[in-house]
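S., here's the first fold you wanted:
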Amino acid sequence: MINIVSWLQFQKLFSGVEKLGILGFGREGQSTYHAIRKVLPNLSILVFDQKEPNPEVLHLLDNDVSITLHTGDNYLSQVIECQMVVKAPGVPLKDLHTLACNLNLVSQTELFLNLYRNQVVGITGTKGKSTTTNLLFHILLKAGKSVKLVGNIGIPPLDLVGQIGDKDIIVFEMSSHQLEHSNVSPHIAVLLNIFEEHLDHYLSYKHYQLAKMNIAKNQREEDVFICYPANAQISQLLHENLPKAELWSIGNTNSFENNVYCSGEDLIINQQGKSFEIHGGCNAASLLGEHNKLNICAAVAVAHKLNLDQQEILNGLKTFQGLPHRLEFVGTRKEIMFYNDSISTIPESTIAAIKALPATSTIILGGYDRGVNFSLLLEFLRNSTVTNLVFVGAAGRRMYEEGLFANGTIDKTCILCSTFTKAFHQAVRLTPANSICLLSPAASSYDEFKNFEHRGEFFKSLVNKL
């Protein structure tokens, strides 16, 4: 059913705008264009993208006389003419830092929250946000709630304008790129963790942290903020600026009166002096590793705040299957168990993966180098029970050299390979029977692959060919 009121409210967001800029014309940029054209068919739109759009997109724009396309090295030369610029997540902020102070930059996320913030559960974190988002969505759906899934998970939020009812719950996976310019926060906000990532996108690591914290920065007293205060970066941000919202912690930290944590196999929910227990809740979902227990706690905290009872929550946990490329068991070949953890693009995530799979004897590491500090991972590897380290890509080369593995100073087999395929076959050769060969790269995939999904699927295809 089309909600006319939502479209009218959306139209009002552009009041006084004579020229609107769309910065970045990939999937989300095109979504912005289509949404605006539904309510403002004649508004002057300037599209800015360094890359030339593909022929299909150009054909789409052929019949629009009120649009101009700016591409190439000087594609931003006329952006200052726009009264409002809707920035897509993929455009690096550091490319705009000389212009940003003079621009009215907004995002799809902010526009969407202006319409629906009271219905939104926003979930962010360097790692775990997709798992937590999908787990919460599944729990709510299993309990019979009317729920929508949007955001970084693959659905641009403006695609749902006009399709959301008053009783719908919107579960919104939010990346730092989607949050960086938002002046509106969701009613329920979840911040799982903050680690070094996307350093090629931001002016500094602190800028990245502040972008994440935007999820709660503009919350009100009647809102809810759920976080993991044991994370050093989150702890510091809370010290600098404590949100106004009702505070919840996850993990056994006792940071706040309201918290959710695992006690053995059970989930404990504490709220304003009252305690609730979900027997077997911590191990109910098909999720490996201590880090996933925190993701479970976060999803359960939200479900509890949305008035689901313990049995409804447990039913959702028991039937959740997990996501691909996240400690995904691929299969057993040549008496070797293969696991795909391509999502692990930072050191902390790879450490968590190894802890979750103690039978790992071989790991494939490396990829595109974003300048992340690998010292914590290298120290962990030196002292781990993993015996075979196979490195690939520029990030793998740096790990190999910084860890002194090239000099043979540790009692492990260490090999540096020129391609992912060669790394895979070396890993297979080195892995003994009845142990695990793990892909958990601790690095981005953009050297040989389109994204981490592409890398994970390629790994699985190699396994299935054995």
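And the second, which I think is the more interesting of the pair:
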Amino acid sequence: MTQDGERAALEGDREDRIRGLPRNVTDLILELLPAQDAARTSILSRNWRYIWATLPNLVLDYDFCRKLIEESESMFKLAVDEILLLHMGNIVKFILDTRGAHFSSCADIDKWVLYVTRNGVKKLTLRISNLNTYTLPPSIFKCSTLTDLELTNCVFKPPSSFLGFPNLISLDLQRTTFVPTTSFCVIKAPLLEDLSLNMCHGSQYLNIISPGLKSLYVRDSYYHLVLNCFMNCKDLRVFKLDFYKVADEKSTLEKLLISLPALEVLHLDSYFLELLSADVVPNGLPFTLNFLRHLSLCVAFDHLGQTSYALQLIKNSPNLRKLVIWVDATDDDAKAVLKYLDSPSCLERPLNKLEHVSINIYESAKAELCFVKQLLSRTPSLLRMRISQKTDIDVDIALELMRFPRASPRAELSYFPYQD
């Protein structure tokens, strides 16, 4: 066989192998490629010629957008126009990430969003640059097919005719600004399960009606989120509040915790412990977290109220399996806290279900070590306790930790420098 004949045979064999791949495999391959590389696969085989144009998931990620925008804004917009113009069939997922880019106009983004919402989009992600102010177009609020919505640096201003998202399951809002048409931004989402609010503005205007909510995470809210709208979320299993101040009083937050019978994971920042304790040592709590499995707390151990409330939460979680403590800077001369931690009433009952403990201490202050000692002596099922320290580790502290008595003969104790 001649050299040209051998080459033709090899190319034919390669094309046969490519042509024979199942459609779900080719879809997966193309979805893992950048958009421009996926388009180039049309030359591999006649069967592949139009596959990239029928992909249900269009991912225009940060790298794709950045490279084109660095060439020119017009080139980027033309490329996205062509991708959507040549696309055939429904679009299930659409991701657009233009962070770091400044546009002279956001009209093209409105046009792209209109296109995907008219083509049955279910999972929509818009990560817009903070160099632009992007107000969501009306087409998003009319899109009833949405199941997953992620927004970054957007203005959420629903029209007065907005009826909600009937099929929405996940809502992730980052640096989003809420602007009410009337007195509140009301979002009716009867199927919503996961809600995340990260560094959002105007959350005091937000009213989410989602009785089936299972996970709620709020971080760095610049204004006051009203927690009352979550009182009816009886299925809430994960509840995290971080670096955030609320307008509500202690009673509102306690009522919310009382109203969450299915709660399994709870994270509270030190601000909330301060709010809940009102700087008073509680004799007990008005609620028991019977289903709580994972508790994460940020505690300042030189604040008696925070320390005592943290211990009350631990004691009132009879089925707790995992405990994570983040320690704020602690005054080494916290006499009131040391006296409380040494008292018999501090942890009068064993924590029978607790198996894993992680404590991120600041600088091994006396109160922090006393707290560790109490836990080791009251956890008969403990398997592992990991202690990390933000400052350099101290050999004397390590020896002291090793000498603490342990209720569990199987407990492993590790002490090491903190790592991000």
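Why I say that: The chain has 13 helices and 19 strands. Residues 269-419 form a domain with the Leucine-rich repeat, LRR (right-handed beta-alpha superhelix) fold (CATH 3.80.10).

Talk tomorrow,
H.
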